[in-house]
């Protein structure tokens, strides 16, 4: 186990590919296009029967996968704006997709992971750590919330939950050391 | 654990629910809509009489939130204030679960845990924003030991040793 | 699907990483969706600090506004209280408990920064008002039929031209008249006359006819017609080549006034000095009598009652030293001194210094350790409670005999009492003089002083005291009539039922009634009543309030420390150096709402007699919305040409205001409709032109604000409001002196005046104080608001200086003001007074201290608000109801609920078992506070509070949607069941239920029984069509600034206006309020004041199940 965990860069690359694949898959569904098969292949590394689960999801379903749908209180209605501000807080702006959409969050994770890969490649441990922290915040505060709400997303919920726990362990150990 | 140097005292008989403390805190600390560092609850008794109960982080002397944090992002300062280091917090939510008073929340804009800081950026030269703005002096920010009033605390049985004191409060949790 | 273990997961990740699966192809897409932007920018320098006056509600507390100047613009960052202001009161680390007093007025400004003042939530939330994305910034003109929601941007110049000269709605080919058509002064001037001379003489001729009618010299139609004919003949000749029809509304009815009266100016949320400014504009400069306020939907019942009792409209208990207050029909957290100032009352009560009997159908917001006692009372029956208390007081002799027995001014001077009462005066009981005060002349003496009884009937000026209770018979002009003292009449009224019967009517137990009476008497004179809309906004509200004030009279608490006080004094801001009042012009006539004029004084009366076509309200101290719009609708007493509506929303906020929609849409009844406002609300939807206005933080409502009773008990209190930031509206030009002009009410009125040539504007428009030798010949120009407002502050400052309040400022203080206050840019207009103005500005106004405001005898140093308190008002007793022709009863009395003509109300309300009330709360003010997001997050919607017993009997549970049916309509609202409201009462907190605020969201929660009005609502547009560049001051700011201000709000409405459901949530019950079938089915109003009625009756029914969404019900 220790050997695997120490191989930080590989894991990060793996995660980056995972989120890219998730983004591509759901984005295709969102636009009623066929999912390019390399994405399914990628996800099968992590969840063996994932194709079956993905085929259950329709375009109409995907349009509902948003923060605003996770709560019906008054405050839920400002969810898109809160997500916008979340991204702004980290120096990004969102276009084209609703800011509180799951796909937007996948895109953000992809971006963060790509940046993290670059940071690790130039041995910038602090930058990598801070990017990991942002990722964890996104998953804990927003992404899991959406995934939990929809029945058809259950396998993805489990997947991301697992990813978050890996991230959590890494962060806990790294921050405790420093 | 260091003891809190300050005594935050809330006189329940004076609070009449104007909510300016909530607005002042939101303004002073840039709090997003829908989440609260301090809030006021309203209760109606059987005879129809109403009372308001301001709530806030108790800056406990034996805080379960501090021990719950996996990355040691939340800590108790030398003067006893419990604060969160925004840089370290990973947003896991453990401290939010650990608080028996519901004082912590997830800041949706930053993705980190958030809570009342007793306006650490202003005290002790100035008062916390909520204390200063209150039209009835229902909230006070004193030095520990400054008053010997008949005070009680919220949920004393948690073992957290909460350090926010209530006056004229009849025990509704 | 089987669970993947962590080990396997990591293995999978590594495997994926090493695999050649290529998933990066979507990178450009991701880059498009998420892209970097710059991070937070910190403000460039230290912020500015301004002390000004709040307008979160109308209490006018002080505020300290912190402004940051960044390279992206000025940003208001935080609003705190002003420690100099008696309402805010000072707080510091060392001074936390007993927040009773403000810091001394002469505290150097530098030191004042070590303190703050308290402030309520609405004041804190002012930021969201200033930067409200729904704000209009440029002038608009409608580009479709009225009410279609289509508007386009026009230039300021076009706006001024068309409003003055007339215009065309190009899209519908409609012709709109200009105000110039009825600017009589201008017409006369153009034709070569001296307008003032001509109009003055005309007015005198009409006054002459009127006085002849009064003296019965003209006493029939023919005689009056003859007089009118000769008037017409004279003036047709004199005015040639102009015709009489060019000058008068109706040459056969010259008493109605000149055509200038056909421009009506209504204001909603008025303030000094906007009020004085447009009053001068419309009344003096334009020459119209129609300067009208929203008071009938505010507190007119309370005002009219106090006027009858004490000759002034506003009196309440001293907040600092009172010991027992009966707070009746007044909301904790709303009534002056407001949510901020009332904090003092609450703290004192909690500390045992004050006892409050909270007479209200809803529970008080705290019991303050048992010192605030809830006295539930059946809504509308409060007069019975007052009578019960009076009954006990009379029986047990719990009244101030000494005070009541003083019969005259002379006697009161001897007794060193600033005020006396008419308790001992005698009222004639029968004959044609019934209801009048017995005077010397009635009994054959030469004087007109009231007669009193002191071992015989005596001239009240000749005795030191007189009998309180007396009944007798005297000969008046040969006839024997019964007479009773005023107090005897009141006693008989109070004893007309026994305490048990009164108790049954109002629902207050006898023990509580006796308790209150005893507590009041034992603590007098530091005891009394503080009353407000719950009592006064009632069809017989004036009598209700008066009955409570009778209690105060008996206690003898007037003008004393701890007792009843009027308003604080203020300075002569309109006339001390610069004469901002007088403009040479002449006006006369009947206002469109018939306030302040008796029907019997009009020429119409001689011709038509009773009933009047619509009610007239001679004794109301202020103006009436309903009657104004009914007047416009019926063209009675005359048709109008133009309505200018400022900062108002009668369609929504006036009771049954939805009835006004049809009138507003009618271009024949209302040819020109101009709206001056910050956003397009439910009323402005129907305007022809929209003039963008400024808020209190950016130049709106500037001036020297007086405050309402009891004014903190201090002698002088004036809050000064100046802008914290420069206006957000369009810049429209420059003044000749080089200062900038921004689109706003101020510049709009000035530019119209300049265009039309109205007197009092332009060159040499403002004179020096005519009473000061060195000033009276000086003249100053008025081309922009700064030339007006700086002179306002100069007046106050110099009056303050001469009164010893404003001292010599230090260099440091002047620098503080010049560095921080935007208004300092305009100091060159008033170079001689600037430094004293700076002294006042630095402190946010002029304030005196409480302790120094009372003399050694415990009397207030203020000028007494009146000379005599009246428990019988002769003027009222002589006034006739304009529809029935019957005289009004002249003293406090309990009446059963009735309509204007005393006919039908019982029938209308029969069968409706519940009473619906609309209380306010400290979180909001009326309907103009839906942008207070920090408050809305706590209370996103309103609801109907119902007592558990009522809920049980109707099968309703908390969260259910219920339908409330009133005599006029149906309202769907969420029910909340709790015992904080009395049985039989439904309380709907007021302020929500909006449907238009530059965005439109058609209301679905109500339906009226009047189909015509329902159609008006159905015809609402689905949205407003207006250009994006005309709206929204937030978009000019960069995104990061928006985040600093609005980490809380929708960004979508920065770009385009979509309905913000928070702003349009909830219900407003006044759309289904009571109407009066005896006045044409317009809103039910009170007899004397024309005040609206703040309750209605209802049946309730469960509509659908629901649940409560918010964890705490707060209002």
Entry keywords:
heterotrimer, B: 173 residues, alpha+beta, Alpha-Beta Plaits, two-stranded antiparallel sheet, 14% helix, C: 1115 residues, Barwin-like endoglucanases, seven-stranded mixed beta sheet, six-stranded mixed β-barrel, 36 helices
General description of the model:
The complex is a heterotrimer of chains A (178), B (173) and C (1115). Chain A has one domain: TorD-like (Orthogonal Bundle). In chain A, 72% of the residues lie in helices and 2% in strands. Chain A contains nine helices and one strand. In chain A, helix 2 runs antiparallel to helix 7. Chain B has one domain: Alpha-Beta Plaits, CATH 3.30.70. In chain B, the strands form four sheets. Chain B has a three-stranded mixed sheet. In chain B, strands 2-3 form a two-stranded antiparallel ribbon. Chain B is of the alpha+beta class and 173 residues long. Chain B is built from four helices and nine strands. In chain C, helix 6 packs across helix 26, helix 11 runs parallel beside helix 26 and helix 28 crosses helix 29. Chain C is globular and about 120 Å long. In chain C, the strands form 14 sheets. Chain C has a seven-stranded mixed sheet, with helices on one face. A six-stranded mixed β-barrel of chain C has the order 37-41-38-40-39-45. With 1115 residues, chain C is α+β, with helices and mostly antiparallel strands. The relative contact order of chain C is 0.14. Chain C starts with 5 loop residues before the first helix and ends in an 11-residue tail after the last strand. In chain C, 29% of the residues lie in helices and 17% in strands. Chain C is built from 36 helices and 45 strands. The interface between B and C is large, with 49 and 59 residues.
């Amino acid at each position: 186990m220790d050997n695997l965990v120490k191989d930080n860069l590989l894991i990060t690359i793996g995660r980056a590919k995972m989120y890219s694949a998730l983004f591509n898959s759901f984005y295709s569904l969102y636009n009623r296009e066929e999912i390019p098969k390399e994405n399914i292949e990628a996800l099968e590394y992590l969840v063996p029967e994932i194709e079956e689960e993905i085929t259950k999801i329709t375009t109409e379903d995907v349009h509902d996968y948003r923060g605003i749908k996770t709560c019906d209180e008054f405050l839920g209605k400002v969810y898109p704006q809160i997500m916008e501000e979340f991204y702004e807080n980290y120096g990004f702006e969102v276009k084209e997709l609703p800011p509180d959409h799951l796909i937007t969050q996948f895109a953000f994770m992809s971006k963060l992971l790509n940046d993290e890969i670059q940071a690790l490649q130039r041995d910038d441990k602090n930058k990598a750590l801070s990017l990991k922290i942002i990722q964890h915040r996104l998953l804990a505060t927003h992404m899991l919330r959406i995934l939990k709400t929809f029945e058809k997303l259950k396998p993805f919920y489990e997947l991301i939950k697992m990813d978050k726990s890996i991230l959590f362990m890494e962060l806990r150990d790294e921050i405790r050391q420093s | 654990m260091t003891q809190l140097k300050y005594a935050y005292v809330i006189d329940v008989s004076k609070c009449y629910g104007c909510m300016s403390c909530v607005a002042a805190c939101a303004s002073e600390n840039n709090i997003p809509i829908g989440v609260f560092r301090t809030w006021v609850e309203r209760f109606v008794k059987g005879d129809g009489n109403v009372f308001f109960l301001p709530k806030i982080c108790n800056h406990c002397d034996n805080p379960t939130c501090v021990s719950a944090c996996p990355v040691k992002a939340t800590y108790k300062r030398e003067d006893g204030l419990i604060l969160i280091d925004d840089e370290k917090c990973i947003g896991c939510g453990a401290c939010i679960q650990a608080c028996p008073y519901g004082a912590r929340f997830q800041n949706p804009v930053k993705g980190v845990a958030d809570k009342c800081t007793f306006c650490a950026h202003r005290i002790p030269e100035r008062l916390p924003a909520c204390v200063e703005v209150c039209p009835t002096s229902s909230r006070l920010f004193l030095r520990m030991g400054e008053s010997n009033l008949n005070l009680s605390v919220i949920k004393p049985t948690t073992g957290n040793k909460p350090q926010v004191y209530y006056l004229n409060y009849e025990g509704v949790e | 699907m089987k669970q993947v273990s962590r080990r396997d997961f990591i293995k999978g990740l590594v495997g994926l990483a090493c695999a050649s699966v290529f998933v990066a192809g979507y990178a450009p897409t991701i880059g498009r969706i998420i892209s970097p932007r710059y991070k937070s920018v910190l403000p460039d320098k230290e912020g500015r600090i301004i002390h000004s006056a709040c307008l979160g509600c109308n209490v006018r507390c002080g505020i300290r506004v912190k402004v940051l100047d960044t390279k992206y613009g000025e940003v208001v960052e935080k609003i705190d209280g002003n420690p100099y202001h008696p309402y805010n009161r000072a707080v510091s680390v060392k001074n936390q408990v007993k927040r009773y007093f403000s810091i001394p007025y002469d505290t150097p400004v530098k030191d004042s920064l070590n303190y703050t003042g308290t402030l309520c939530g609405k004041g804190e939330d002012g930021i969201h008002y200033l930067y409200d994305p729904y704000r209009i910034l440029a002038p608009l003109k409608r580009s479709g039929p009225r009410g279609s929601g289509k508007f386009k941007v026009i230039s300021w110049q076009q706006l001024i031209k068309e409003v003055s000269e007339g215009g065309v709605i190009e899209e519908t080919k409609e012709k709109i008249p200009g105000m110039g058509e009825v600017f009589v002064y201008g017409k006369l001037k153009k034709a070569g006359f001296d307008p003032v001379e001509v109009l003055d003489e005309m007015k005198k001729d009409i006054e002459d006819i009127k006085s002849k009618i009064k003296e019965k010299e003209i006493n029939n139609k023919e005689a009056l017609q003859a007089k009118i004919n000769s008037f017409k003949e004279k003036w047709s000749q004199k005015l040639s080549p102009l015709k009489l029809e060019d000058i008068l509304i109706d040459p056969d009815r010259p008493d109605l006034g000149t055509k200038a009266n056909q421009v009506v100016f209504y204001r909603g949320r008025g303030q000094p000095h906007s009020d004085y400014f447009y009053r001068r504009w419309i009344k003096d400069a334009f020459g119209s009598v129609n300067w009208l306020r929203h008071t009938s939907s505010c507190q007119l019942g309370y005002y009219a009652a106090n006027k009858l009792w004490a000759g002034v409209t506003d009196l309440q208990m001293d907040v600092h030293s009172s010991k027992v207050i009966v707070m009746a029909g007044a909301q904790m957290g709303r009534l002056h001194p407001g949510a901020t100032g009332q904090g003092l009352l609450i703290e004192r009560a909690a500390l045992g210094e004050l006892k409050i009997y909270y007479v209200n159908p809803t529970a008080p917001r705290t019991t303050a350790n048992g010192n605030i006692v809830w006295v539930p009372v059946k809504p509308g029956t409060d007069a019975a409670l007052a009578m019960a208390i009076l009954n006990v007081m009379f029986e047990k002799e719990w009244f101030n005999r000494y005070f009541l027995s003083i019969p005259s001014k002379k006697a009161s001077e001897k007794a060193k009492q600033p005020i006396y009462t008419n308790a001992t005066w005698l009222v004639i009981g029968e004959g044609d003089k019934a209801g009048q005060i017995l005077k010397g002349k009635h009994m054959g003496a030469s004087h007109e002083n009231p007669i009193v009884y002191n071992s015989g009937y005596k001239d009240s000026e000749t005795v030191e005291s007189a009998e309180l209770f007396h009944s007798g018979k005297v000969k008046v002009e040969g006839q024997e009539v019964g007479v009773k003292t005023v107090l005897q009449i009141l006693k008989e009224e109070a004893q007309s039922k026994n305490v048990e019967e009164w108790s049954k009517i109002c629902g207050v137990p006898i023990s509580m009634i006796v308790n209150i009476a005893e507590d009041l008497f034992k603590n007098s004179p530091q005891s009394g009543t503080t009353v407000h809309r719950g009592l006064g906004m009632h069809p017989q509200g004036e009598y209700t309030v008066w009955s409570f004030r009778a209690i105060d009279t008996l206690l003898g608490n007037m003008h004393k420390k701890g007792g009843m006080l009027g308003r604080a004094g203020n300075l002569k801001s309109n006339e001390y150096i610069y004469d901002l009042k007088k403009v040479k012009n002449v006006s006369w006539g009947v206002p469109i709402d018939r306030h302040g004029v008796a029907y019997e004084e009009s020429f119409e009366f001689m011709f038509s007699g009773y009933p009047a076509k619509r009610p007239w309200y001679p004794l109301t101290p202020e103006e009436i919305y309903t009657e104004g719009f009914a007047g416009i609708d019926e063209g009675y007493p005359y048709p109008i040409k133009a309505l200018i509506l400022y900062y108002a929303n009668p369609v929504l906020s006036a009771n049954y205001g939805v009835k006004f929609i049809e009138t507003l849409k009618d271009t024949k009844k209302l040819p020109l409709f101009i709206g001056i406002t910050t956003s397009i609300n439910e009323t402005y939807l129907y305007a022809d032109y929209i003039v963008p206005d400024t808020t209190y933080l950016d130049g709106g409502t500037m001036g020297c604000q007086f405050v309402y009773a009891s004014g903190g008990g201090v002698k002088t209190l004036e809050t000064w409001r100046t802008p914290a930031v420069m206006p957000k509206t369009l810049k429209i030009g420059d003044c000749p002196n080089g200062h900038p002009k921004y689109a706003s009410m101020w510049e709009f009125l000035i530019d119209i005046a300049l265009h039309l040539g109205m007197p009092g504007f332009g060159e040499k428009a403002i004179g020096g104080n005519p009473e000061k030798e060195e000033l009276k010949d000086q003249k100053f120009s008025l081309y922009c608001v700064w030339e007006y407002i700086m002179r306002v502050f100069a007046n106050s400052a110099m009056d303050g200086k001469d009164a010893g309040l404003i001292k010599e400022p230090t260099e440091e203080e002047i620098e503080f003001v010049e560095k921080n206050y935007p208004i300092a840019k305009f100091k060159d207009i008033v170079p001689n007074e600037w430094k004293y103005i700076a002294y006042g500005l630095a402190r946010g106004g002029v304030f005196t201290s409480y302790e120094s405001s009372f003399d050694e005898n415990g009397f207030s140093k203020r000028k007494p608000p009146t000379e005599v308190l009246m428990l019988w008002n002769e003027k009222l007793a002589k006034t006739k109801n304009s529809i029935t022709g019957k005289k009004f009863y002249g003293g406090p009395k309990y009446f059963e609920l009735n309509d204007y003509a005393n006919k039908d109300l019982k029938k209308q309300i029969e069968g409706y078992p519940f009473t619906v009330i609309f209380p306010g709360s400290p979180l909001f003010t009326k309907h103009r506070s839906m942008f207070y997001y920090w408050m809305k997050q706590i209370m996103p919607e309103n609801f109907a509070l119902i007592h558990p017993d009522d809920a049980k009997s109707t099968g309703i549970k908390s969260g259910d949607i219920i339908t409330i049916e009133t005599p006029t309509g149906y309202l769907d609202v969420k029910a909340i069941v709790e015992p904080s409201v009395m049985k039989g009462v439904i309380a709907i907190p007021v302020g929500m239920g909006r449907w238009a605020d530059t965005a439109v969201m058609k209301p679905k929660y109500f339906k009226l029984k009047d189909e015509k009005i329902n159609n008006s609502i159905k015809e609402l547009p689905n949205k407003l069509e207006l250009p994006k560049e005309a709206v929204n001051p937030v978009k000019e700011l960069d995104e990061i600034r928006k985040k600093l201000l609005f980490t809380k709000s929708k960004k979508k409405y920065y770009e385009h206006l979509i309905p913000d459901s928070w702003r349009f949530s909830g219900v407003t019950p006044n759309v289904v309020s009571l109407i009066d079938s005896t006045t044409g089915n317009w809103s039910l109003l009170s007899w004397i004041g024309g005040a609206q009625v703040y309750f209605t009756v209802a049946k309730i029914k469960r509509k659908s199940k629901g649940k409560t969404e918010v964890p705490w019900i707060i209002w």
